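Subject: Sanity check before I submit

Could someone independently write out the structure tokens for this chain? I want to compare against mine line by line before I put it in a report. The sequence has 273 residues.
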Amino acid sequence: MIYTRRLFLATAIALAGTNIALMPAHAGPAQTFKTFQKGSSKSVNHAAWDKLLKTYVHKTRSGLNEVDYKAFKKSGHRALKAYLRKLQSTNVKSLDRKEQFAFWVNLYNAKTIEVILSKYPVSSIKKIKSGIFSPGPWKLKNMKVNGEALTLDDVEHKILRGLWRDPRIHYAVNCASIGCPNLAVDAFTAANSQKLLNAGARAYINSPRGVKVSGGRVQASKIYKWFKKDFGGNERGILKHLRLYAAPKLAAKLKTARSINSYDYDWSLNDLR
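---
Independent answer below. Compare away.
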């Protein structure tokens, strides 16, 4: 009896393995959303998100855009949820590439804010877990677009970075932290994306959160270390990128730099102080 049961189990496992091998693998978000409609006249109205940003995101003298999460949760959370529902009901595959880019950036940023508001008050986004061993909420499947369940990581790394391969994406998406590039006070649109990407790069690189040079020593954000391959694959490539957007004073300090001495990042919430 034991032998028969073992034989049955072994046969079942072998057959299951065969079936699994014959099943098509899941294509993944990048493959799923690589489709676009060139020349499409369809657009997504991001006015509601733009209004929320202008109401609750505040520019400061330090250069950091701070978010009034307390007021946002009290008066804007419902409108944010409505905007997210609207985005997730959009057939993103029917949009052209420029509209898609704005769609994904706004979806990522709006969902990140909603994740914070759902747990606020909280000192850091890393306090919000998607699993026992997770460092944050980025692997939680909390969105659905065109029937595909998605995580924040899916949107940032597989769709935006995977399809557009533009290092400036790091200045567009915001992780609700002081160390992160600013959350823009304008919603991304097909018309303004390039302008906002360049503005975001200049603002971050020319702030001490992006790069500092003291006594010839260069300290950069850990973003450039974590995503080195997006910036040329080495420190020489990172420095070239930094010089591209550096203001004259910083560019002069970076001119003779050949390496980056240290990296830093502040995960504290970008809350209004």
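---
OP: Matches mine. For the report I'm noting this point. The two ends are 71 Å apart (CA to CA).
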